[in-house]
Each structure stands twice: as structure tokens, then as C-alpha cells.
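Intended use. Records like the one below are meant for learning the mapping from a protein sequence to its folded structure. Do not use them to infer anything beyond what is encoded.
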Amino acid sequence: AYEAGCRRFVATVGGYGTNPYVQDVMVGNLATETLLTTLREMEAELPEMEPLDHLVALSAEMEKRFGVAMQ
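Structure written out for the chain above:
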């Protein structure tokens, strides 16, 4: 999508949650940490950000606390 010109994405920590605009139950959320890592690998222009370590740790904590598999 980025290569096709899309510059707005919806993502959630660990990919957990739902998108109220999607009616198909087979469609899940994209993990924020996956999106940012992929965009960096594509050398996309991104604002200065802190390392993703805290997002990865939060995702792992949510997985433990709520018993759901995160991306």
C-alpha cells in the first residue's frame, strides 16, 4: 500500500482490537510495531521516534494479562 501511495494506516499495539469500519471478521489489525518496522525497512520518511522496545514489551504484557495472542 505504501508503494502505491498510501500514507495513512491504522494499527494497534500487538495488532489487538477491532476496526469498526471493517465488516469482515477475517480482517485483523496491523500491529504498530510491525508497521513501523516495515516502513523503516522500506526507507519510508518517518518522524523521529523512540525505539520500539516499549511497544514490544507492552504487547508481551498484554498477551500475558489478557491471554490473547498478539502479532
